[in-house]
Specification:
7-stranded antiparallel beta sheet; 288 residues; 7% helix; 10-stranded mixed beta sheet; mainly beta
């Protein structure tokens, strides 16, 4: 009898959690710890990404940065469902092997530039990453203004980068004038898992005036500390906007070549959320 009681109790609690939405696989949208949700896209619609929240970078980055500065092979399209679409509650950014512009591949790069940007907070996305050598998806941030004079002095925060030839590793990185990929001095951390590609995971940072913590699901795996060494070491005292993209090839993504049979291939995104503390110094800078 006691065994049946506990079984019935577990069934009741499970049903309650399911109905309340706490068992949905998504983190609570009313807050995160001491922070409040200030912006999100839950992708609960169909068609093109919400134009009130997302814009596009287009082309191959020429003439200034052909291959987007990394010798990448994709051409980013704008407003093309084949490369960026929302369906079944998810955003899908798809790289395709097809002649587009002067490139052999098409893809999409979504940005919140001039629509929303933030200084400090928790920024997270739940995503399922693609499989295939030569694929290079990323979830990252760039500064909203040219405050300190361009890249890398202006800074870059790579919340999640993944290259297909390393299917067991996720990277989180910052770039600054002192610490950047051109010099090989970038500040990067990685985490290993045998269940990355093709599985749902949450990728996040928690960023304040003193540090940036990088998370894979609930595990913190890397921290970049503000050592008060000036803007060349810490340009992260300004608003940044979000970037979601899937690149093909490039200096890093294509280091081991490209499996041309893997395409089309893409990244599924369940949601993107931004949390902040209620403080004027960390308030969301959302364009109206």
């Amino acid at each position: 009898m006691m065994k049946d009681f506990w079984k019935d109790l577990r069934l009741f609690l499970g049903a309650f959690l399911l109905l309340s939405g706490c068992y949905s696989g998504k983190s609570a949208i009313k807050g995160h710890g001491e922070m409040n949700l200030v912006w999100s896209d839950e992708f609960n619609y169909n068609g093109l990404p919400d134009s009130a929240k997302w814009g596009y970078d287009r082309g191959d980055g020429c003439p200034a940065l052909c291959g987007w500065g990394n010798h990448e092979l994709q051409h980013y399209t704008v407003g093309r469902l084949e490369n960026a679409r929302v369906e079944n509650g998810h955003l899908f950014i798809e790289a395709r092997r097809e002649k587009t512009g002067s490139s052999e591949y098409s893809s999409a790069r979504l940005v919140t530039r001039k629509k929303a940007d933030w200084q400090y907070g928790r920024i997270e996305a739940r995503a399922k990453l693609p499989v295939g050598r030569g694929i290079w998806p990323a979830f990252w941030m760039l500064p909203a203004q040219n405050t300190y004079g361009g890249w890398p002095r202006n800074g870059e925060i790579d919340i999640m980068e993944f290259v297909g030839y390393q299917p067991d590793t996720i990277y989180g990185t910052v770039h600054t004038e002192n610490f950047n990929g051109m010099k090989g001095t970038q500040k990067s951390g990685g985490i290993f898992s045998d269940q990355i590609a093709g599985e749902w995971h949450v990728f996040a940072i928690e960023w304040d005036a003193d540090k940036i913590d990088f998370y894979f699901d609930q595990q913190k795996y890397h921290t970049f500390i503000n050592r008060k060494q000036g803007v060349d070491a810490w340009p992260f005292d300004q608003p940044f906007y979000l970037v979601l993209n899937v690149a093909v090839g490039g200096d890093w993504g294509g280091k081991k070549g490209i499996d041309t049979t893997a395409f089309p291939q893409g990244m599924l995104v369940d949601y993107v959320r931004v949390y902040q503390k209620e403080s004027p110094a960390t308030a969301q800078n959302l364009k109206k």
